[in-house]
Amino acid sequence: MTPLLSVKDVAKYYGPHIGCTDVSFDLYPGEVMGIVGESGSGKSTLLNCLAGHLPADRGEVFFDTRVDGPRDTLKMREPERRLLGRTDWAFVHQHARDGLRMGVSAGGNVGERLMAVGARNYGDIRANAQDWLGRVEIDASRIDDRPTTFSGGMQQRLQIARNLVTGPRLVFMDEPTGGLDVSVQARLLDLLRGLVRDLGLSAIIVTHDLAVVRLLADRLMVMKSGHVVESGLTDQVLDDPQHAYTQLLVSSVLQV
Amino acid sequence: MTDYNFAYLDEQTKRMIRRAILKGLAIPGYQVPFASREMPMPYGWGTGGVQVSAATLTPDDTFKVIDQGADDTTNAVSIRQFFEKTADVETTTETSEATVIQTRHRIPEEPLSEDQILVYQVPIPEPLRFLEPRETETRKMHALEEYGLMHVKLYEDISRHGHIATAYAYPVKVEGRYVMDPSPIPKFDNPKMEMAAIQLFGAGREQRIYALPPYTKVVSLDFEDHPFDPSKAPHPCGLCGAEHSYLDEVITDDQGGRMFVCSDTDYCEKRRAAGHVGTLTQEAAA
């Protein structure tokens, strides 16, 4: 089986400082990969390099494209990479405001990706937007409201709908539950888990919340100071941490 | 003659502007940056159009200026006088007589011919400006032909008003490539942009020039189920009775009285001289 995403020795430096280095892994279709680590460990840098938002300094990222098979996205031409970015890839930002157009209605936000890939039928676009708002549990009557009138949790769900509407195969998520209160977090996680399973999505989730990866991720990668210190099946890593840092991380979780 | 260099600008400046114009004609719809000069009039009065006209005019040209279709409004009168003074060119109000026509927000009703040039004054050349504020990003979007966002604007119009409510500066796609802001002409004029004359667009404050060569394909953006509609007020002209010209609504009293007249004054006058009458002229005669 061809991996959907194959990362080989990716590195990114900020001047003399290491952003992330020596990162290699394979992600198979339908698999969810979690990346955990403390602030400044390079997990967001890595995610941005993989998604093409930051130029990596070294390494290869092969994505299994629908037409041409595995292609190195770091060496792709920018138009191709941006096309991937609005068709087969999705990027969910930590702050919904970064991923949404706040001056455009919810329907317009969801429809943007459809129009970007050539949808030109208003009725179809609107029906599709309505369908997706329903799937992320936003009332259909809010379709013409701007995201500024939405709560934080709704904005995050709207961002997810907007990203998934073109049926991507790989979703990058940067702290999707950050900044939400726990009950809203729980609903969002439940929703995400459902969507990932139903649509057979592959996903890479960056978070510092171990509960999120326990619930969503099949596999886990632990990062510290730009390096991957441990990786494996989620339950295995969390229940039997080998590396000193992972042990610290797991034991730092507060038990209620 | 005056102490001005011909058409106010110095020769090197005109050369620079002509290079931008030629580049614009070579890539229809592409916004060419140029080193816009300060002109002796405020921004928003047509400094871009004036510079393009200055670079285009020759001593043999006949010049016409219209402002919202009219030859006798402040903007049109002052720009016409400006070139009478600095270039000593012939000026006219007749569309067919002119070789260079500078316009603010209208295309003349009378079809233009191949030996004419139409110069537009453009306030904001970037059609994506209010959707994507970053100029670096909009330039990239033009370069990579990512125009989905333009339809988001039209989508928003329909979802809010039930139809595409954008009535002026209606975005167009040029030769299947660049999306262009046609300057704030009414969308009624959009279909006329596929014409025989050369069309030049100058934005002074924004320092951009773009152009349409003769017979360039210009398509107004729309949705399959909400096609483009070049609408106008559903009335004939009150003075000349024209059925298919763009009309201005003029409030005549504070009792709700109003009249609709051609916005193109030259077109209206010619029709009246040829004996056409509208309802208002009939009433006045009676």
Order of helices and strands of chain B: HEHEHEEEHHEEEEEEEHH
**Unreliable residue stretches of chain A:** none
Topology as H/E string of chain A? EEEHEEHEHHHHEHEHEEHH
User: Rounded to an integer, what's the Rg of chain B over CA atoms?
Assistant: 20 Å
The tally of strands of chain A reads 10
Tally of helical segments of chain A: 10
Mass-distribution shape of chain B: globular
> Which sheet architecture does the biggest sheet of chain A show?
6 strands, mixed
**Termini Cα gap of chain B:** 50 Å
Structural class estimated from helices and strands of chain B: alpha/beta
Let me know the average pLDDT of chain B.
Answer: 94
Strand order of the largest sheet of chain B: 1-9-8-5-4-2-3
Stretches of chain B where pLDDT falls below 50 for ≥5 residues? none
Please identify the oligomeric state: heterodimer
Helix content of chain B: 25-40%
Which structural category fits the helices and strands of chain A? alpha/beta
Strand numbers in spatial order across the main sheet of chain A: 6-7-8-3-9-10
Strand content bin of chain B: 15-25%
Specify the helix fraction band of chain A: 25-40%
Global mean pLDDT of chain A = 91
Largest sheet composition of chain B: 7 strands, mixed
Task: Write up this protein.
The complex is a heterodimer of chains A (256) and B (286). Chain A is an alpha/beta fold and 256 residues long. Chain A has ten helices and ten strands. Chain A has helices spanning 43-50, 78-86, 96-99, 106-116, 122-135, 152-164, 182-199, 210-216, 234-239, 244-251, and strands at residues 5-14, 17-27, 32-37, 58-65, 69-72, 89-92, 170-174, 202-207, 219-224, 227-233. In chain A, helix 7 (182-199) links the parallel strand 7 (170-174) and strand 8 (202-207). The radius of gyration of chain A is 18 Å and the shape is globular. The model of chain A has no long low-confidence stretch (mean pLDDT 91). By secondary structure, chain B is an alpha/beta fold. The longest helix of chain B has 16 residues, at 11-26. Chain B is globular and about 60 Å long. The termini of chain B are far apart. The relative contact order of chain B is 0.16.
